[in-house]
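Weekend entry, working from home. Most of the wet-lab plans are on hold until the incubator is repaired, so I used the time to fold the two sequences that have been sitting in the queue since the last round of cloning. Logging both here for the record. First:
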Amino acid sequence: MKTIKAIIIITLVSIFTTTTYAAEVPRESAPCNATSEAIVIVESLIGDILTEVQNGLGYADARAKSNRIFFNAWLNGQTNGYRYGELVDIANAAIWQYRDMYLRPDFYANNLEKVRVIIAPVIEDYKSGKVTYTEAEFNARNKIYQSVNPNFNPDVEYMKYPIYRDIPSVDNSLFILARKLILESKYYNGV
């Protein structure tokens, strides 16, 4: 079964790369439960739409186009067993990120190095194998919160009932940059 999935993925990737350039799903935007195969399927179905979003297509228009494609693919059994909702979640997150990057390119350019400095210890722990990806992502979030409010204590705040937590207000895109840096550190480390 795994060899069949591998063959399907390789086939999809080869079709995807030989036809036209289409944008990839940013791995840092994918939901934590998304598999590599599901991401490849999303890319093969809506890579062109992601490219359009990079070039200015609006979020709602892109979602409408992609939802129609996924629904038709699901109805016709072309999703390799993945549910419509799984694929749409991956696509919507990618569309949102590309749209945000289109609207605020300076934010991403100006904050990448800032986030890298803030989460440097987390990246080192992840690269050395001291923590898992999930732990690294959690620790990076806390480092970002503490960069806004040095008194933020996750051990205290997360023990509170959610409505009473005092968590600093932070632009969600900083977390996307943190996930990007953590994922990149894995690949640069030769893993």
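Second, folded right after the first finished:
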Amino acid sequence: MNKTIYINENYKLLKATSNIVEGGLARNIAIMSWLQNNINGLKEIKLFNNRIINLFIVFFILLTERKSKIIFQYVTVGVPLFNGTIIGKVLRQAFIISVSRSSKFNNLIFDVSDLKYEQSIDLDIEPYKRSLMKDFENKFFRLNLKFIFASYAMQEYACKKYKISKENTEVIINGGNIPRCKSLYTHCINLHKINYVYAGTLNNGRSIEEMIKQFPNRNEVHLYLMGSGGEWIKDVIKGRNITYLGAYPEEKAHEIVAMCDIGLIPYDNTKKYFNIAFPTKLSFYVTAGIPFLSTPVDEVIRINNIYQFGFIEEITNWEILIKKLCKKTIENEKNKIINNNGDFEWGNVISKSRFLKIENNISR
């Protein structure tokens, strides 16, 4: 029987529970756990902190394995793909050559949570590395591999840009976990008000300032902010109907979100990256049983066209919309979500994958 090999550089992250787990981190952990629990005979290759040993393990598998399904989660592949040194350049080239060679004998699958080049532009991440990101991804995505993308917009964009055959791609959206119990944090939330919540990274440059600016300073509504990187917010929200709760582990954060009424997704819809990414916040809110208020980014529009249990509006109009929304309207949205939020639960989302479940059919 052909083997399924999972290159796992994410198992260490299970211990990192001091902050809200979201985005690529939550996705990596969810897929890791699903593979461990659902693939019979899974050969899990756990990578360690020693980079030299990791390199040896990854290249050894790529060069020696035959007739196996090998699963990676890009970019945690055991090789420092975006190291800016000469050694980094050599390793990137060696990885491309090794993956290309291995794909002739094995079924190589890469789960892609982000397109790093586009992400680096719109989030202004490591701008000095953009040229090497662009060069690497231009080579990598043109290889004869199977790619699992985190959104349909990302799939369409990558297929068009890199001329990837649609048959070699599929989509696993970013999901969430349905809270297992009612929160013990009822002291945090004033349940007599209409409570809005933002759960996620609170660094500058993520439209946080505009979201705060657009939130009406009215007694009947309140905004709760949760996540890492939000210490700067305390001075901004003084005297406002806004509370910064700090960072919580994912499970506790989810319980608090479930006590709120609407989750906020303030993505900048003028930027390409936010239109091709699937916001994990959407599934985080929906699995908690509350609707979302989002800017009109492509993937949110697509989801809302199917389920119609959220509100979509330009962020400059959020204040007007928030003033109009009442408890009854929000409760109607919550009732829709209760009947559909299982569609966004991680286990159900991942189990639809053809690539992760199919048997190898390589014959050399």
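Plan for Monday: verify the second prediction. Residues 360-364 have pLDDT under 50 and may be disordered.
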